Amino acid sequence: MSEFCYQYVVLRCVPRPEREEFVNVGVVLYCQESDYLDVAWQVDRDRLATFAPGLDLDRVVAALEFVAGVCAGDARGGEAAIRPLGQRFGFLKAPKSTVVQPGPVHGGVTADPASALAHLRERLVG
């Protein structure tokens, strides 16, 4: 079985960027060789409500649904969703001043990008 290089970013909920505090809420994985781009996310509403009282949790979920739309290439991702996969990943890994922000880009090697994504989400998000 062939192994493929991939890149990923961890998506962070950053309610107050000036405090530089965050909670990991998702992972985006891109594998050019296997034409794969997807996100796996989980919002622990109780944890986020404790971490940032008053945070609009529906806004966090909406931001993650937008990311899912960009990855899937569907209407949820707006204009970004119609771009080639590499450009979509470039868009998603770029820093933004929203409540959900990408961390640094990391890499790895896998024979199964979907399994790698599931593993990373479990390990890094919970």
Automatic annotation (TrEMBL):
It holds the Pfam family DUF3037. It comes from the Bacteria. It comes from Nocardioides malaquae. This is DUF3037 domain-containing protein. InterPro entries: DUF3037.
